[in-house]
Design a protein that fits this description.
TIM Barrel, 8-stranded parallel sheet
Length: 316
């Protein structure tokens, strides 16, 4: 979720009902070598708590040093280790899911972080179910992490080889949850409140983590809470409410000055805007227009047009 779960979007997800937040993952070496550039990725507000800062790397000592530095900066509620990222540039640096192939190194990384922050904050970990279908070792890896002192484990139900394709294997996630004594959080293919309720009902997980589905639909947290608490699926979010949030996100990003001037900020948000509008009527044409926006005023005009077209369609 690098480039997605930034300071502003985490705040939006919290408003929508997310219980626990995790930052974009950051490189331990980036933390140790490039304070000014990397520090912004670890920042959060008090309103976003409980929140963890996610690290990746392959050297336990350096990871521990980075974790202590983050605690000095931010005092997060926990440090999260990423053993799940499948992206080539991370795997090539022996980070993320590459460590699923090397249990001793994975254990050294986990032990290094746990030892470095002992008595300060808990350590959690995010992992995949294995490197590929021939090496699904999630249960063994989870037991190793618990032995190292990791206190919560999130499991994404795909192998590294799958990337984000195919289906998440919740049977393996369930097996992990039943095999270890710490809470296990399930992740993968959760796009609605009904999905969340089903996985909570049918598996032994202590909770679920929603990632990619929230990119275009942060309302999923509100929906999941309503289904879990009241057993009711709320009505679809109105188009006007969706556009209101899209515009608020854009205005907050521009006002924050975190991403440069207005043009730079809106340009960097184009992919996010297309995710938000994926399910809108006329989405194909809308996405083509969103690929060209450079100012909030242009998005406001597209919102007015979208809402107007939808109203005309309803009347017709």
């Amino acid at each position: 979720m690098a480039g997605v779960t930034d300071y502003i979007f985490r705040g939006i997800c919290k408003e929508m009902g997310a219980d626990v937040l995790v930052t974009e993952f950051v490189s331990a070496e980036g933390i140790l070598q490039a304070d000014a550039r990397t520090r912004k990725y670890t920042e959060f507000s008090e309103a976003q708590r409980p929140v963890g800062v996610q690290l990746f790397g392959a050297n336990g000592q350096r990871m521990g040093e980075a974790a202590r530095k983050i605690i000095d900066w931010q005092q997060p509620n926990f440090i999260d280790i990423n053993f799940g990222c499948p992206v080539n540039k991370v795997v090539a640096r022996n980070g993320g899911s590459s460590l699923l192939k090397d249990a001793p190194l994975l254990a050294a990384v986990a032990e290094g972080v746990v030892r470095a922050v002992a008595g300060q904050v808990p350590v959690t970990a995010k992992m995949r179910i294995g490197w590929d279908t021939q090496t699904i070792n999630a249960v063994a890896i989870a037991k190793t992490l618990v032995d190292c002192g990791v206190q919560v484990i999130a499991v994404h139900g795909r192998t590294r080889a799958q990337g984000y394709g195919g289906e998440a294997d919740w049977d393996v996630i369930d097996a992990v949850a039943r095999a270890v004594a710490v809470p296990v959080i399930g992740n993968g293919d959760l796009a609605s409140g009904a999905d969340v309720a089903r996985r909570r009902r049918e598996t032994a997980v202590a909770g679920v983590m929603i990632g990619r589905a929230a990119m275009g639909n942060p309302w999923v947290f509100r929906e999941a809470r309503e289904v879990l608490v009241n057993g009711v699926t709320p009505p679809p979010v109105r188009l006007e409410e969706r556009w209101d949030l899209v515009l608020r996100h854009c205005r907050l990003a521009v006002a924050s000055d975190r991403y440069g001037n207005e043009c730079q900020t809106i340009t960097s948000m184009r992919t996010r805007l297309m995710a938000y509008c994926k399910s809108f009527a006329g989405a194909k044409d809308l996405r083509q227009l969103l690929c060209q926006v450079t100012a909030v005023s242009q998005i406001e005009a597209l919102a007015d047009r979208s809402i107007g077209l939808a109203a005309m369609k309803d009347e017709g």
